[in-house]
Write a structure and sequence with these properties.
Layout lengths: L1 E4 L9 H8 L5 H9 L3 E3 L2 E2 L11 E4 L18 E4 L3 E6 L16 H9 L22 E7 L2 H12 L4 E9 L6 E4 L4 E2 L7 E2 L10 E7 L4 E8 L6 H8 L22 E9 L6 E5 L4 H8 L13 E3 L1
Helix pairs in contact: 1-2
Amino acid sequence: MIHLDTSAADAGKRLDQFLHDQLPQFSRSRLQTWINQGRVHVNGAAAKRSFQLKGGEQIQVEPADLAPLRAVPEDLPLEILYQDDDVIAVNKPAGMVVHAGAGRHSGTLVNALVHRFGKLSNVGGDLRPGIVHRLDRLTSGVILVAKTDAAHRHLAAQFSGRTVEKIYLALVHGQMNTDRGEITKPIARDPIRRVRMTAKSASGRHAITEYKVLRRPGGYSYLEVKIGTGRTHQIRVHLSSIGHPVAGDKLYGAPPSTLGRYFLHAHQITFTSPTTGDRITIKAPLPAELAQYLDQLPISHQPSATSPRQSL
């Protein structure tokens, strides 16, 4: 048991913030997990992460055993789109986390991959075997996995060199003014809401997002999106920054939706085979729930072929 006392200087701090400051040997996610499990008591009573300290409290922390440092195999559904001796392409469903983190250690894509394939590339460590790139939890679509360390390094070099071509399908709120456009605003962590990214910071990282309007159903625009960089939440934050948030994405300003997920799908990826040097293109069809949602929207005009390109 760990015993801590707060002082007047701690007044106004959140409980999880205080613990992170006082117990730097534990990760923030681990401390938050212990709070959620009722292992942290303030003046003898379990408290929430957001509990605001007043100063003078007595805090008891009961540490739990560390979570396993190796991904555990789990028999989970897995749709394989392609595989060879080096690479696996998986159609990740919306709702599935790619790898463990933030208190989540089961039900991930990695857990399913380890069960199905056993040994994968270990370049990313024991918790992320085979993982070369990621998709957000509520984004579906094709994701590449490396079987060997050599393949992992080859694919990673392609991603960093921007020779991997990625195409997404997205439904956004509002009617796009032009049929094609490019967004090049830098992206940084939002200094106020740390779970978000922002395109309003001049000190952000360079990012490129290109879009083409496929059609404009109802009050929406249905887009094909290509990204030249792979920043966190890039498509979501870029489209929101020009007033067109992705449908279902409340974090970036979309109104409430019946979707239960984002209308964002990693439709296609093209890469160079680490073994043969051939260019390989893998496609993941639009999920049924997104196709049905799109079909129920009113039919409207198709984009014109002569609309000018817009840069933002």
